[in-house]
Amino acid sequence: MLRAACLSLLAISVILAGCDRSDRPAATPATAAAPATTGGSKGGDFGPPQGEPIKAVLTSPPMVPPATGRTKPAKVIVELEVIEKEMPISEGVTYMFWTFGGTVPGSFIRVRQGDTVEFHLKNAPDSKMPHNIDLHGVTGPGGGAASSFTAPGHASRFTFKALNAGLYVYHCATAPVGMHVANGMYGLILVEPPQGMPKVDREYYVMQGDFYTAGKYREKGLQAFNMEKAIDENPTYVLFNGSEGALTGDKALTAKTGESVRLYVGNGGPNLVSSFHVIGEIFDKVWYEGGTHFQENVQTTLIPAGGAAIMEFHMEVPGSYVLVDHSIFRAFNKGALAILKADGPEVTAIYSGKEVDEVYLGDRASPNLAAVATAARSAGAGALTVDEQIKAGQALFAGTCSTCHQANGQGLPRVFPPLAKSDFFAKDSNRVVDTVLRGLSGPVKVNGEDYNSVMPPMAQLTDDEAANIATYVLNSWGNPGGRVTKEQVAKRRKEAAPAAASH
Amino acid sequence: MRALLLLCLLPLVASASDGGGYVRIPGGEFASVLQYEDGRGPSRVAPFEVMQRPVTNAEFKAFVDKHPAWRRDRVATVFAEDGYLAQWQAPARLAPGEQALQPVTRVSWFAADAYCAAQGARLPRWIEWEYVAAADATRRDARRDPAWRERILAWYGRPSSRALPRAGAGAPNVYGVHDLHGVVWEWVDDYSALLVSSDSRNQGDPDRRQFCGAGALSVGDREQYAVLMRVAMLSALAGSDTTMNLGFRCVRELR
User: Fold this and answer.
1) B246-247 and B185-186: which strand pairing?
2) A141/A145 Cα distance (integer angstroms)
3) Of A485, A455, A453, A452, nearest to A470 (Cα)?
4) What is the pLDDT of residues A268-294, one digit of tens each?
5) Do A150 and A131 touch, CB atoms closer than 8 A?
6) Which of A17, A320, A339, A379 ranks highest by number of CB atoms within 10 Å?
7) What is the pLDDT of residues A43-67, one digit of tens each?
């Protein structure tokens, strides 16, 4: 059905292109003309494989195998092993991932249109679960799933001809499918068009996925899968390449100015659609939906769950470019953030401003942090006053807290609780500290109003910063006053979930 | 068939304490997560006795010592694949330490079946296993309780590279039976009738061939995916297969 619909769309575009030509025969720019159809799967069979079978080069993310460089259809052998293993999902947090090839996303597979692919799926002996694979690049029922159902310690084989060119998601389709996908069982297979992909300087492999852990965001230790959150489509983490920090710091993607970069980006889901964006770059080309045609000059491209896209851009200005899901809370509160670092000489004619290297510090990039610096100096000298703490806390509050609780501490009625004259922490200043450190989710009553919202933990704040914010809150807007020291914060940070967590 | 004949020739080695001894399970009405083709609504489960805990390596070794045809170096390959008992130090020697008391794994269905037969027992049918496993510490059927389900799912999320606990170390359920969840998968007698489609998404269009199977794609209760993963696991297996997380226990008809 789908294919029929696509073909009729193509037919329409061909007719339109025809009109174009007759109306404006002389000056139709190449990019405006609808490209001729590739013929889809009917045009993708180039006959039987030729030459000796070739073993496919598989790569772990973020690397991409080299171009096949072939001009004739070949028989390609792909060997992929399913491995269930505990890996970090965030700093100090681990998760029992189910993987294709030991990584999330799974190994990148690269073949050429018309290739005959002999697929070997192995399931590691210490796996608990049976697994299979559905490759969206396969023409046939289930995409290989029924032919590849494999018990632990076994291997299955099936063969398909890659009839359609494009970038395709593969994933496990064993019951319950959502859980297998949520545990990281997806990856990408690129079926190159016969002429190959245009040459670029660098290619990278990035894949987004959403994860559902029993514990809260960044709650330490081995976290179990939570089916309820998955059904509610309420992820704890939204990540590129399976862990927070998979593509930042030392592991950031790299390029040099003057180079062209191509990203193969997939979205494994299981639930969320990605608004994929690179902060500071414009995609020169996007092969939207991983298909044959490209759009030019794109800021943000939509990648459906179980879909992919290819994007290309030229690096002009050195610095750090941040890859995000522009559904932006996912980037800053659930982990969907990666860095592409471009090295090279400054090009002030194109961009003159200051570059922020390292992580994108959205909430602290405000210039008014002099009070914070003053407080830090005093604290170092052992002469920190309450007044200095309040001033520093005010600056920090403006960056981190005021978005929700408002600069006047009034919050937003029925959405974000007020901090002004709040009975929530009137009796116990530790409640302010605990809420800052651990966040607060679920129903809570403040000044007689019910609230049911999510505040993420602000565990990234240092003890000093949290103490200053708490002191500011306690001394503002009619609150009772008081002082929170960094020692008090350190103590609360160490203690296991206190009273505030029971709300 | 040949397997059965062979087993009939083996002498019985009934050791009362294997599997921690047997516990009597009263019969009752039970709605399986699978819809059996021969009827709608709950099934009747007759009373039976079941081992308190999975069979251990030491117990299985005693069986192999008595019936050397089931040693890993002598077993016919149609009855057990290469990985059979590979965790033992030698064909007739356990690894030192905890292994003796851990549940035996890497046993084929044929080997598990032979062990139970030698006990004058048999492997449980799926519905018997599911019936006992539906219980928690206080109720016979706790399947509606999300906490029961979460405990099962928690095991799926634990790395299997960690050593197995001793058999019987888990808390008993209301019948006094241990370790039905959270330690190992267990063979059932009719595992090969549990045909879950190998592509589970075809649930509206089941392959007609699979209607022969008792559990043909017919998932009665989608909420019970935690148990269904066990069905999916069993349906992925052949009788000679062994895995690092698959053991068994036996049941007995009432005398």
Assistant:
1) parallel
2) 8
3) A485
4) 999 999 999 999 999 999 999 999 999
5) yes
6) A339
7) 899 999 999 999 999 999 999 999 9
Cα separation, A438 vs A350, in Å, equals: 43
Residues of chain A where predicted confidence (pLDDT) is lower than 70: 1-35, 353-369, 496-503
Whether the model pTM is above 0.80: no
Q: What is the CA radius of gyration of chain B?
A: 18
Which residues in chain B have their CB less than 8 angstroms from residue A129's CB? 156, 229, 232-233
Surface-to-core class of residue B175, CB atoms within 10 Å of its CB (0-12 exposed, 13-18 middle, 19+ buried): middle
Could you read off the pLDDT of B217-254 as tens digits, one per residue?
Answer: 444 455 677 787 888 888 888 899 999 999 999 999 98
Task: Collect all residues of chain B within an 8 Å Cβ-Cβ radius of residue A140.
Answer: none
For the question of an ipTM over 0.90, the answer is: no
Nearest 5°: CA angle at A425, between A424 and A427? 115
Band (pLDDT 50/70/90 cuts) for residue B92 is very high
Residue of chain B with shortest Cα separation from A179: B225
8 Å CB contact of A142 and B201: yes
Packing angle of the helix pair B225-235, B126-133 (nearest 10 deg): 150
Q: Which of A475, A393, A395, A479 is nearest to A436 (CA)?
A: A393
Question: Which 3 state secondary structure label does DSSP give B28?
Answer: strand
**A125 contacts chain B (CB < 8 A):** yes
Q: Which residues of chain B make contact with A86, given a CB cutoff of 8 A?
A: 159, 161
Torsion of CA A198, A200, A202, A206, to 10 degrees: -40
User: CA-CA distance, A185 to A381, in Å (whole number)?
Assistant: 53
CATH class, domain B19-253, is: alpha beta
